[in-house]
């Protein structure tokens, strides 16, 4: 191609030389323009002649080198980020459930309403619950009455047993005295002894504590059972008034008047309450990346609903355990939450948002595109610098790395080629090696451009 360019230039010179002769003949007819035309022709011939010499000199000195694009080595900053996505939700949320068999009577809130903790959300039909409460109260009263009656009867029986024992003891003493005088037979004495034993046995059937006769434990057990049933009935009645367990915004109302609350489709909650003043992003991070993530790291959050805006965030929590990623993958992921710092972010609960977690960054360092790195035979990296049309490879140490750029520093601090402002090849191919001749085309590129990627 270079020979063709020289031939074209030579041909143009010949044409102009011939054209100069023809011009001179014509100028002879128009004398007043003759001097200017000759000077112009000579000037053009001289320029082309010099251009021809320059092209011949270039073709003899590196003109056949490889064409490469280069940029100046400059300082800047580079950030390593992890891109993830997940659903947005309130930092505190509650599903209001109910398993009682009752119809919804009145709903007092709508989706979007702000509620306080303990505020009434709905009333359920309470007739059955009220009847159950009345029955439970009656059962408890009956159990207590039975206990009182049993205590009364047991007390009376105990008093009778005491009297019978005293009578048996008196009769036995009298019979014993008479037997000793021969006034009664042995059979009569034995009968008195048997009566005394029976009276004593009857007294043994009673339990006395601190001088007070005790009744059977079954009466106390019946009262305890009745009290528990009463508590359940009271709770059931209380549940007919549906309250908000937290302060927040009503984000879902899944019921309507006349619907039984224990028969909602797919076991949905009656209401969902969320604290939308503070939002969070629920994400799952791969087990291969979680080691670089820590609580407190900054993140930039975006979503379609936000347009070109972004919101700042911070890693709030990292689960201590992982879980299966799903979809047949053996990879495990770790649930992680990112708090959205800005209340005016434009985000809403329930949508999917994207987050870029800042894992690491370096400032005021040399930054080059990843495409500029040359792999060395030892497995390391190098930059291909161009000086005087010749390639010089400088081994480098890489640091913080983004998707398209990387921090670099010389392995040898005394490397004569690695210096700010030196030209390096942006996309060196396999043919680039130490000492290769090249023809460079310098692109104006800053470190910020390098971090954004070379085009």
UniProtKB/TrEMBL annotation:
Transmembrane segments: 38-58
Keywords: Coiled coil, Membrane, Transmembrane, Transmembrane helix
Coiled coil start-end: 126-243
Domain YknX-like barrel-sandwich hybrid: 103-260
Cell compartment(s), UniProt: Cell envelope
Predominant location category: other
One GO cellular component term noted in the UniProt record for this chain: cell envelope
The UniProt record lists the keyword Membrane: yes
Pfam family, one: BSH_YknX
Name of the molecule in the record: RND family efflux transporter MFP subunit
Organism: Moryella indoligenes
The organism's taxonomic lineage, starting at the top: Bacteria, Bacillati, Bacillota, Clostridia, Lachnospirales
């Amino acid at each position: 191609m270079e020979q063709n360019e020289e031939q074209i230039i030579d041909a143009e010179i010949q044409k102009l030389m011939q054209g100069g002769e023809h011009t001179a003949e014509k100028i002879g007819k128009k004398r007043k323009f003759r001097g200017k035309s000759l000077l112009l022709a000579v000037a053009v011939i001289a320029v082309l002649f010099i251009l021809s010499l320059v092209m011949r000199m270039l073709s003899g000195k590196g003109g056949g080198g490889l064409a490469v694009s280069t940029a100046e080595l400059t300082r800047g900053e580079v950030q390593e980020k992890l891109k993830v996505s997940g659903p947005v939700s309130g930092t505190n949320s509650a599903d209001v459930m109910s398993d009682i068999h009752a119809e919804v009577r009145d709903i007092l809130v709508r989706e979007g309403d702000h509620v306080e903790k303990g505020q009434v959300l709905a009333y359920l039909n309470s007739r059955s619950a009220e009847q159950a409460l009345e029955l439970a109260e009656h059962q408890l009263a009956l159990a207590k009455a039975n206990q009182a009656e049993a205590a009364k009867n047991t007390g009376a029986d105990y008093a009778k047993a005491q009297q019978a024992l005293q009578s048996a003891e008196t009769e036995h003493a009298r019979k014993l005295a008479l037997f000793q005088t021969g006034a009664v037979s042995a059979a009569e004495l034995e009968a008195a002894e048997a009566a005394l034993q029976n009276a004593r046995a009857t007294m043994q059937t009673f339990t006395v504590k601190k001088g007070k006769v005790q009744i059977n434990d079954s009466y106390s057990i019946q009262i305890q059972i009745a009290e528990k049933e009463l508590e359940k009935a009271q709770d059931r009645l209380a549940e007919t008034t549906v309250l908000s367990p937290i302060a927040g915004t009503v984000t879902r109302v899944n019921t309507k008047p006349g619907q039984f609350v224990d028969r909602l489709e797919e076991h949905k909650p009656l209401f969902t309450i969320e604290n939308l003043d503070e939002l969070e992003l629920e994400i799952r991070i791969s087990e291969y990346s979680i080691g670089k993530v820590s609580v407190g790291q900054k993140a930039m959050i975006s979503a379609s609903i936000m347009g070109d805006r972004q919101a700042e965030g911070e890693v709030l929590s990292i689960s201590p355990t992982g879980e299966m990623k799903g979809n047949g993958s053996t990879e495990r992921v770790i649930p992680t939450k990112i708090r959205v710092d800005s209340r005016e972010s434009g985000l809403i609960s329930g949508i999917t948002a994207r987050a870029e977690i800042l894992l690491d960054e370096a400032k005021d360092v040399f930054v080059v595109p990843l495409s500029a790195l040359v792999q060395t035979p030892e497995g390391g990296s190098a930059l291909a610098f161009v000086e005087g049309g010749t390639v010089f490879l400088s081994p480098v140490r890489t640091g913080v790395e983004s998707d398209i750029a990387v921090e670099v520093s010389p392995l040898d601090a005394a490397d004569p080629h690695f210096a700010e402002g030196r030209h390096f090849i942006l996309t060196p191919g396999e043919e680039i090696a130490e000492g290769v001749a090249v023809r460079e085309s310098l692109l104006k590129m800053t470190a910020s451009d390098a971090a954004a990627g070379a085009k």
